Amino acid sequence: MFSIYIVFVSFKSPCPPFMETSIGPVLICASWILSQSIFMRVRCIISTRLERFGEKVLLKSGFLTLLGEVVGGILIFIVVEKFRIFEEKPECVFDLSYCKA
After folding, report:
1. What is the mean pLDDT of each run of 10 residues along the chain (101 residues)?
2. Where are the alpha helices (DSSP H) in 1-101?
3. d(CA 37, CA 50)
């Protein structure tokens, strides 16, 4: 649920919802912290369950986790840099006039 909100905010950039309110930054920070906490907890649970199968299985699990992070990072880089689906904030604009257009 928190991850869906994070993706939604990124697609609405550079004018995310609640940008002009004080709750916007708090909501996005809380979403990041909670989603990463949930992912970390799930990884710990999986590692704890795999522990009974031995050290080699844990090593393979760690390798696959890192491989997934690298592949995910490369895919996100390609999507952001090559396909340009996100918009940049105009330079030297300090008010929110570009969001109202």
Report:
1. 87 83 91 94 94 94 96 92 79 73 56
2. 2-11, 23-50, 55-81
3. 20
